[in-house]
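User: quick one
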Amino acid sequence: MQIRYAVFTPILCRTQRFNCAINNTRLQMLFTQTVPGAIYLLATVSPRLDRYITLVKAYKMSMELDVFVGNTTIMDMEVYQLWLDGLTVSDAVKVRMDEGALLECEANPEVLTSDTMDQFRTFQMCERLLHSPTKLGSQLLYQIPAQNQIILIERYYEFDSVFAREVLGKKLSKGTKKDLDDISCKTGITLKSCRRQFDNFKRVFKVVEELKGPLVENIQRHFLLSDTLARDYAAIVFFANSRFETGKRKLQYLSFQDFAFCAGQLISYWTIGAMDSMMEDMDVDLEKEFLNELKDLKVLVNDKDMMDQHKILVCAALRGKIKVYKLMEVNFKNLSRALVNLASKLTHTKDVRDLFIDLVEKFIEPCRYDRWTVAEITLFLTHYTNAAHCLGTFRHQMIWDRYMGVIKSSQCSPLLHLSLIKVNYLSPTPSISSVSPPVNILNELNTFLICKL
Amino acid sequence: MPGKLKAKIVAGRHLPVMDRASDLTDAFVEVKFGNTTFKTDVFPKSLNPQWNSEWFKFEVDDEDLQDEPLQITVLDHDTYSANDAIGKVYIDIDPLLSCEAATVISGWLPIYDTIHGIRGEINVLVKVDLFNDLNRFRQSSCGVKFFCTTSIPRCYRVALVHGFVEELVVNEDPEYQWIDRIRTPRASNEARQRLISLMSGELQRKIGLKVLEMGGNAVVGYLQCFDLEGESGLVVRAIGTACTLDKLSPGTDSKEPVFSEDPPHSLSGPPTPLRTLPSSSPPPFSPSKPCSRQSSSSDTDLSLTPRIGKTSPASSPSPPLSAPFLIPTQKLTEFPIFTLTCFPPGFLVHVGGVVSTRSVKLLDRIHNPDEPETRDAWWEEIRQEIKSHAKALGCHAVVGYSESTSICEEVCILSASGTAAMLNPRFMREGCLDTGGSDHRLSRQPHPGMVGSERGEGEVSSTWLGFEDASPPSCGFVHIPYDEFNMPFPAQLTYCYHCRRQKVPDVLFTTIDLPAEAEVTGKGCLIQARLCRTKKKAQGEVNATSISNLLPFMEYELHTQLMNKLKLRSMNALFGLRIQISVGENMLLGLASATGVYLSALPAPGGIQIAGKTPSDLSYDQHISTMQKRIDDTIAKNKELYNIHPPECIEEVVGSPIPDRQRSSRLFRSTSESSDELSELDLSHGKKDAFVLEIDDTDAVEDIQSLLTDAPIPAGFYSCNTEVMPGIHNWTSGLQMFTSVRVYRLSNANLTNQGLNKIFTDLCENLLKSLYFKLRSMIPCCLCHLNFTVAVPEEELIQVRGHTYLSTPLLLWSGENEEQLQFSMELCGESTISNNQPTAKPSAPSVDYGSFADRCSTWLELLRLKAHTIRRGSVKTISSSERCSPLPEGRSRSLRSTRSLPCGAPVTVVKMTPLSFLPGTRIVKYLGIINMFFIRETTSLREEGGVSGFLHSFIAEVFAMVRAHVAALGGNALVSYSMKECVFMENPNKNQAQCLINVSGDAVIFIRESDQEAIPPLLTSRQTSSTGADGTT
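Assistant: Done. Structure below.
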């Protein structure tokens, strides 16, 4: 309970009487706040009159109740953000003061505190409704303008990608929730905010988990989120469901957005919904059948003829086009084996979880060792994929395309761009269709080729 | 005669989980009216049940229809144990009983439980088939319309004003019955809610009967209050003004402009033609004339009281007025008292000033609820007193009348206040002719619209013209109604600055809204006087006596404060004055709020001068002069702030309006013309040695402090407690309403008066500051209808309750093309203190301290014109020779707001406002009165977020329920909203709290003005219905 300031009039009266009696003695008054909540008034009447030094406990007045309710619920979106960030009222008041809130309307700290408390209470009461955003529109308790409702929901479900990166792929269980304080320490996000974000993930996960139909649309329908935010949630749900390993040190360089992109690719290539949108598809799970069929790709490395043929095709296509051609030619079999083995192993859940770490260890790191550029890898993978089609004896074209679709587009761009190239050649958000490398890389390629020739 | 009530339960949604095992609910519904109960089937395992029941039909007396609410209880079916109640919905059938109001109640209504709050919603359909009852001796009064609005409702026209109606019902409070010891809190709360619902229904029916008896068909300015007298019972009382209203047909609508329906609107609204009218010519007002024919028939109930009103207006100063008025006095045994605060132009002839009465009573157990004579007698006494005060002011009527109580243990202060006024005798006579026989009146009723109005128009406009000779409309009302040689109190009279013919006082206090025709200079502002006085704890008679003794001094102080603050803002009139005195165990709190304005017709107020008592000391002199400088600076600053310009500037303006011309012409003539004008100027200078205030006197210091410590309003904000902000004319239709409640606890019991005063002032200032801060995003805006309420519920606990209304109209003014927002807000600060007393002594004899207290309490108003209020010390009030511009600059340059906020989404947005209108919109239909009473209790206070969380959610719930009921009636706004009662009790040790809230208002359908222009009148009704349909979906 906030304690209010005091009133000094009786003391002033007394000192005034002093003034009459003593006449011309200097009056000194000190206001001290020794104990929070009570203000003491120290009246010193000249050094000679020490005995008059009095410590008077001033009146304190506490505000028991302070409520402000509007017919239309008024919300300050800046305060809302502070609340979402998990700040306490006093911290929020400090932040607001620093931002210069006191300059407006001749406010004082009390007014600011009262306003902040009130807003926080309003948000807290609305929180229940925000848990099921569809209800927010039909509930009668708070009259909130439609555009504000949208903002309220969107902001409530927004999350810190740093936090999301930490939780990504973990089971959204009580156990993880207990570890939130560690994450809070690590990321600098308040525990309260972490809990809210975690609960949001869990809530969305619970609702969408068993639903049929496209994941993103389901999330949008039930939580009224914007398209981008719904996609991010889809990634979180997808990772949480498949429990992909993302916490390993070798994967640390990848941001949440990188993984979200990968998730998008996985959803669009490897789930049931990816193939037949009419079917009652489940976007959340990888298609078991497909993963089983990936075993058949082994033929690409097991059949020596096919492998050689494949190599010849790829080499023919890439000759003169990449700097690392020599190394590629030498390592082709290893690289191909790595990729195909990766595919064939995916029948085991454990290996599915380790998809990313395996990719990095088996494919990306060798390439990195050989100083490949992203453009080179992209080009290689494109031709590597296409060349398989030309193999007369290879019959698993469709599976191959689905598999390589993910590897090619997602693994190549985001997984690699930070690891391989210290220089940022790629734009920060690589798109799926960016098979053609950016201009500067092309230029580099050109100069390289010119030198070579 | 019976009516048939039909109800259908359609569906429920968002129900709470009642069965933990399945996380679902097996809900069914009980529909109860009177003693008949119906049940729906159980809809198993769902939180969104679809009952789609048959129509439940109740055949009941229309008397019951008026009294009883329809009770809908939602329960959870339980096979093995008793069914659990989820919650209830009470539906007031009354709006369905009038053919002009709503026809069906249909929509989602929140299911409310007194312990858990809102628990889901239920969709119901309610209809009534009413068979008309023409029996003379019937007990019902179906069809009488009720309006909380204190002006003539927008889409109606007054045919007759019949006068004051009042009624009072008492009962035992269920909370204090023996049975309360054994029943659950829920049962007790529900019993209380039901009882109050019943009582208010009964009250409304009884008032309706009185209105029918008088020949009216509506009650305007209906004000219903609860007195929770604790042990001694529960009193529900209501007052209102009986009228015969004619509905304006769409045809007349378009022909007769806004004005005939809404005088205040013309003030606020954009119509530019009207702006120029008040000063120029009366004809445009003529359409409104027929509205104001009115009778002043006596209230039968009041006829018990001595008939002293007969010869009242003898002292009336204007001979043409007294003559016609005297004719009907044989019928006019009583003064007319009107609860209205807004009047059609020309209705008010003169305004005398505020009259108020307070009476301290000791409460006694009500022994026989059917014979509420004691309470009746108390109020009659008070009304009688008010009448005699009005008479003393030479007035024959009281307008803007209201009553209130403050109860602490067994002591009760009854207060009534109003504004003494002379009403237009022409209207009176017209009315009185009608009062010849009630049959006659009734027979006239059927054809008032066309014939009556036309006849009236011709006639009245001519009378008006005749009347205008005496006093032009824009300044007439400020002319003194009393005899200048026989004044009831010392006053400073001058000739009217507008017409130069009649005498006017130098200051005018009123409880009414600013009349539409009034000429205002600059802008208005909120003025508050706050006062705290300690008293000894006492019981019974001793207590009552000490309160009685304190009251007059409090009123005096409040008045002085108001006067000083008024001068500080260089204004000369107060409107909407509301003085609230609340009693606690060891202190009395007084809070007076009003809107100050500069009336062009009144003389410019003098400044304030301070002088020391014994200016011997040099430093002392210095102190005083700095003080004086500060005051002068403040006055100058305020003049700038409120746009009150000295006349010199204005005179140079080419084509300045009439009052200005008159003024300037007067300046030229002043030397040659009349000598008494000069003497009058001398008189005003004679005021110099007025206010005496000792600087070293603590009281005086406090006074000056309170004068100067009033925090300035942040730029962009305006505030007033009247319906419209004087001096601001362009409003946007965006509005926002708030309620704010604060409770403070004083921890130190040994408080002095000054200490308390300071605290109290700070509380009010802080509340305002908080509001300004909250609403800063809406700048520029105006807080209108700002209404503070204070109460002292517990020992050392100051409860400042505020409900705050805020409308955000967009305005364009003072020539700048910037968008300005304006709000209106009603705010009740409630401040409460009481001490735990040993249980009240039973049956203490009710002693009447009334007359004693009353006499003293009216001091305040008698002092109204006292410029020479002598106080210890020397604050001098000088009437300066400067005169303020009679023309607000905003007016001439005011632009019509062209932009209105985007129309709300198809979702039912229900607006709530304490104003009687919505700026920028037009009310097309009144759907009936909303009068709801809720109790909320909790035994898990901490879990609900403490007292603040508890009250916050409760108020939000009340708003939600009000909105839902308005929407179910097909409306999209609630006007004249007020939160009459907000009683909060807590026991933190037991983790408990309880709160009672009573709200009321008029449900309406409004359309935006822009829409209306686009749609021909015939279509509007169709659109209305579609709006209504939207509302129900």
